[in-house]
Amino acid sequence: MKLFLSQSRFFKNFSIYFTGTLIVKIIGVINLLFLGNLLIPSLYANYVIFIMACDFLQVFVVFGLTSGMMRLVSHDKKVILSNSIFIVFIFSCLLILLITPLKLLFSESRIILFDDISYYVAIRVFSSSIIAVIATFFITIERPIRNTIVSMIGSIVFMILLLLIKFLYISKNLENDIVKLIVIAQTISVSLASLYSLYISRKYIKRSLVSVKKSISILKQTSVFLSKHIIGIFQTRANQIILAVFSNTAIFGIYSYYNSIIAQLSLLAGAFFKAYTPKIVNILHSKIDDKNNKVNRLVRKSLFYYLLISPVFIIFSYFVIKMILIYQDQISVLINIEYISELRLFYFMLIVWTIGNFRSFLDVWQYINQKYVNYFIILIQIIALFILFCGGIIFYNSFGVFGIVINQLLLYTTVIMINLYCYKRFIYAK
């Protein structure tokens, strides 16, 4: 009976995540179409620099809390969240103090943007960090609907603001200010979503539970994930960093635009893993006798269904892209033709992304409190970082932008093999 209820809750959480995320991602695709219409690749490159700067700085503001919370599920929930919000606030204040030297650093950049909108970076980093911490908290307690609503609010507000920008762009010829306007719209949408996120989590946030001692204790317990996230953000953005340095802004913008579409798909796939990961973590932390066998059954079943779905997805994507290329003159009304002309690159990226998702079914071993787990977490990140940068530069010089995707395939293959070994060592063998 308990197993049935546990499984029904898992599928209920997954259906909520998937339905909500599907709606959010549909809105996200509409937003990407607006961006592709408003920004040529070289201008989209400037917008991506803003997003990348926010992502890098958010890693230090969040300080590993978004992964570390999975290890703290047995602790007092209100203490965890209250002190996590306090930590984010303190680190955000430190970031604001660093804005002036950061402006001086970026003022000489060949991609000009940061100097003009640096304080928007600070606001967005603080807001997105709040959302990330609260979202992770709700994931750990298996309350998916609240995260879905937060994501919908941010996406809908951004879409409305993009519509307004599109209207102003046509009527008032704001071409010179278009990137800055989009940055402001992005910041406003994330800020409003963070305010709602704080509102719905208010019963878990108590000022009386906040203390420096408790905050330091939480930081110590989650600090191992900071190094993982630092390396992880360099992994996530490695290909774009290489292209920003070695290619021109047009190629960088086109690749980044396709990468944004892949990111939307990743978040859609993440709807499953937001139910899948905490479900497995909770089983592993439970006191039932055959918990490892239950985890193995769930992992095998999930992998089996993914093996059935992924080829269908790849074939379907092929025909969609083929239709877009046939009618590219008509579709160019919605999106700049520069993006459409390189869809062969996008399809290659899509295949590699589909292969890479296999690692997410196996990496649940990292949430176990066992000896050597932390060492393997760091080791994987270092190996991946080495492959991404060294391999990326070598393959880019040999094959151009397609070399970046080939190197990504090499990375995913390596990481999947290591995760398979760690899964067998820490879970399957028990």
Tell me what the structure shows.
With 430 residues, the protein is mainly alpha-helical. It has one domain (10-428). The chain has 18 helices and no strands. It has helices spanning 2-38, 41-62, 65-68, 77-97, 99-106, 114-140, 144-172, 178-200, 212-222, 224-246, 249-284, 291-326, 328-331, 337-340, 343-356, 358-362, 373-399, 401-428. It starts with a helix and ends with a helix. The relative contact order is 0.12. Mean pLDDT is 82; it is low at 1-5.
**How does the major sheet shape up?**
none
Into which percent range does the helicity of residues fall?
over 70%
- What is the end-to-end distance? 25 Å
Rg, Cα atoms, Å: 22 Å
Count of β-strands? 0
Overall, the morphology is: globular
The secondary structure category is mainly alpha
Instruction: Quote the average pLDDT.
Output: 82
Stretches with pLDDT under 50, minimum 5 residues: 1-5
Question: What would a concise description of this structure say?
Answer:
The chain has 430 residues and is mostly helical.
